[in-house]
Amino acid sequence: MRVIDSHVHLENHDPAKALAMADDFGYERFALMAIPCYTDPLNTLECLLAKRAAPERIYAFGGMVYTPGTPANGRDHEKQLELMMQAGCDGFKILESKPSVYRRLQLPLDGDVFDRAFALAQAEQIPITWHAGDPATFWDAKTAPEFAVRHNWLCVGEGFPSLARLYGEVENVFARYPRLCASMAHLYFTSDDRAHAERMLDQYENFWLDLTPGSEMYHAFLADRDGWKAFFDKYQDKLVFGTDMVDAEGDVVFGSQQTIVDFVLNTLCDDKPFSIGGVSGTGLGLAPAVQQKILAGNFERRAGTPNPISASGLNAYAEYLMPRLTKEDQRRAEALL
Ligand SMILES: [Zn+2]
């Protein structure tokens, strides 16, 4: 079975490690999701340049850079997206509606700052991977899982948006741009409300879901095998495989990246009882043709083959970023290029 991991991050500036892990996991290709945000302004550049090692195997989705002293605005977002795509990006990664990020930026996704970028993304049918929300349990210390409390992932405190607000903003964006090609990360956190996922999937032709854990999703799948199997069969053309793999072996929730891959593939593909990472269940046993769409075909249909990087595009993107980077990041950028 061909496998494309649609949801991978470079956290440690080590694309060679990501590539070696992809080889170990038997991935034909994988997609790097850049999340420069306000902490790592060169992350999009690094994801793009990772393609040099294996241009036919690596996709890069660019993310917006936020820097102190440069207020976010619609023209800048549009320009960043345009330059990232010209440099060889394959899509647009949005993390701004993850509650912890939203809390910091306070930028409504249905507001002016994102509007031009969404217009461009719809016009050009740019694939988007969009993290909106978090598991509903994270909004209350009493219901949140232990690992979420331990890692300070609770959405409790001043400045956090409610989950309803985040969902509302997504719906406003889709109402305005109904042909947007967005794959909502982590099942859009709807494993506790399948009807919600179905409503959005039915309403918008290019609204997709990625199956990157969220452990809670997989617990839900295993707890209602028949219900979810029917869901996977019905929406087999709009679901994409992902794992949140990073360029390091460990994982704070599952212990290791290998455990995540095993857990996801056993849940979706096998129909036998298994016990992995402390979780026991019986796989859903999706039909091979459905598996192949979810594991590779759907993502490929949307993103095509990886775009080549463009030297002039890279330079134009880097030049645009330079004035807002610290001296140290400017030196790093030059060394990367
Ligand atoms: Zn992710």
Q: Care to describe what's here?
A:
Helices cover 44% and strands 15% of the residues. The protein has 14 helices and 13 strands. The protein has a nine-stranded parallel sheet, with helices on both faces. Helix 3 runs parallel beside helix 5 (112-123) and helix 3 runs antiparallel to helix 13. It is globular. The two termini are 36 Å apart. Zinc ion is lined by residues 7, 9, 33, 244.
List the helices and strands and how they pair.
Elements: E1 4-9, H1 15-25, E2 29-33, H2 43-50, E3 58-62, H3 74-87, E4 91-97, H4 99-105, H5 112-123, E5 128-132, H6 146-150, H7 163-176, E6 182-184, H8 194-203, E7 207-210, H9 215-223, H10 225-234, E8 239-240, E9 245-246, E10 250-251, E11 255-256, H11 257-268, E12 273-276, E13 279-282, H12 288-303, H13 311-321, H14 327-336
Parallel strand pairs: 1-2, 1-9, 2-3, 3-4, 4-5, 5-6, 6-7, 7-8
Antiparallel strand pairs: 10-11, 12-13
Helix pairs in contact: 3-5, 3-13, 9-10
Bound molecules: zinc ion.
Zinc ion is lined by residues 7, 9, 33, 244.
- Measured distance between first and last alpha carbons: 36 Å
Integer tally of domains: 1
Q: What percentage of the residues does DSSP assign to strands (E)?
A: 15-25%
CATH superfamily label? Metal-dependent hydrolases
- Unreliable parts: none
